[in-house]
Task: structure prediction
Amino acid sequence: MKTKVLMLVFASFAFIGIITAQEANSKLLSKYSQEELNQFKKDNLKEFYKLNYFVEKGCYIIEMPSKPIELIELKKINPKTGYVIPDYIITLEDLDDFNPLEYNIYRSSLKNNYFRAGDTGYVIVVQSDEDIDVAVTNEMRIKNIR
Result:
């Protein structure tokens, strides 16, 4: 009986550890190692959640608006170095499972940024730091994460 209880306790802790380890979106691995993500999560939990939120929900794709807006040209980069990949042409396939860490995407403090996705007819909307911070604060409050 004690063996079964110990096995159940061990399995519960192992399951909790697996769930915690999988909280990082796999898109983050294009730029960071698992060890870096684990350390980042340990050192600065809220910033870790903001980064995770950014790749999951902080950007979205819309059709090119009919009204004029300030657009930044979207460019493919090497996520590890940040260098632009020369002569890369953005296609609709690039937008299918879009990872903002693989492009010259950046956030502004108070305003959304708009990136023109080549000649696809689409724009990538990047939420402001302020909007992402509010959303992450609310999610962490709901999940009771401190």
User: Anything to note?
Assistant: Residues 2-21 form the longest helix (20 residues). The radius of gyration is 19 Å.
